[in-house]
Design goal:
The chain is mainly alpha-helical. The chain is built from 6 helices and 4 strands.
Length: 153
């Protein structure tokens, strides 16, 4: 399978965290000679306007806005299928991600390549540490940063 990486993470907070994660991806894709489609857009204001009324549902908005851009691009560029690294994390809302991906797959007529990548969680940690990769400490948005460092209420 030929793999192309995709970056679109417009709501990672703070911007310095966004930059660290992007640089880690740039380094990885360069080392692996992996093609990368880069949507380098920081749209924190848009994210906040959409989730501030109901922060509890922020994950659905975050997944949906990023995945829809991915699937739209996959359709436009003629990719056979798509998947997401969100399915690797044991901290993400796995079933919600799968549901959104299936919905977008049908709407855009692009195959959703599903696998439960969480089985590689520990091995991924070992490999990324051995490679000296930057490892994030929270999901990414301002709310997850708050939860990580101040605790959930």
């Amino acid at each position: 399978m030929d793999v192309t990486a995709w970056w679109f993470n417009p709501n990672i907070h703070p911007f310095t965290e966004y930059q660290k994660r992007l640089q880690a991806l740039l380094d990885f894709t360069a080392d692996m000679h992996l093609p990368l489609i880069l949507r380098d857009e920081y749209r924190l204001d848009e994210f906040l306007m959409n989730v501030a009324p109901d922060p509890a549902s922020r994950c659905e908005y975050c997944y949906r806005c990023r995945l829809e851009e991915l699937v739209r691009a996959a359709k436009e560029q003629g990719f056979d299928c798509f998947s997401t690294t969100l399915l690797y994390s044991k901290y993400q809302l796995h079933n919600l991600i799968v549901s959104i991906c299936r919905e977008l797959s049908e709407r855009y007529e692009v195959v959703f390549y599903y696998d439960d990548w969480r089985r590689f969680w520990q091995r991924g940690i070992e490999l990324s540490k051995a490679a000296g990769m930057y490892r994030q400490q929270y999901c990414g948005c301002i709310y997850s940063e708050k939860d990580r460092y101040l605790g959930k209420k």
